[in-house]
Amino acid sequence: MRKFVFLCMILLPGVLIAQKSTPEEEVQQTVREVFEVLSTKDTVALRKLCTTDVRFYEYGQVWPLDTLIKLAVTRNTASDFKRTNMLDFIRTTIRDDVAWATYNLHSSITRNGKQAEVYWQETVVLLRDKKKWKLNTLHSTRLNK
Predict the structure, then answer these.
(1) Pairing of strands 61-64, 98-111
(2) Which of 45, 62, 63, 140 is the most buried (most CB within 10 A)?
């Protein structure tokens, strides 16, 4: 029994430390969650993940959140819609309550029986609000693959 307790005392702190996320991973997780809720069309969760003045810079245009929701959720009525996202983070930087990250995004999108593979390189700015990261700016460049 003593050996078991001793072993637990040695191993448990390492397990607890291994489970703690780094600040950079927390920022990256917020970005992943944004794409997940876009894929599931969960606009309530999307609003919680974004600042009230969030802006999306897409295709040479500037979109507030309501425009993104209209284009990516409301107008997207295909019953077979499915989107899976793969993010490959290039760099994540944090300064106080501001973070920015650059990543490559590959999305597989099925809609109306057709599948498309789309690639972007994006940079996001997030602000920390009550210990939670929120998306404030997303700039997207579509890549030809």
Answers:
(1) unpaired
(2) 63
pLDDT in tens, 94-122: 999 999 999 999 999 999 999 999 999 99
Give the pair of three-digit tokens for residue 97: 């309550």
Distance CA 117, CA 65 (A): 24
CA neighbor of 39 nearest in space, from 94, 118, 97: 118
* E strand spans, 1-145: 50-58, 61-64, 82-95, 98-111, 114-129, 132-143
- Answer for the pair 139, 63: CB distance below 8 angstroms, yes or no: no
- What pTM, to 2 d.p., does this model score? 0.85
Contacts of 55 (CB under 8 A, 6+ apart): 62, 63, 64, 136, 137, 138
DSSP helix, strand, coil percent of the chain (3-state; round to 5): 35, 50, 15
CB 24 within 8 A of CB 128: no
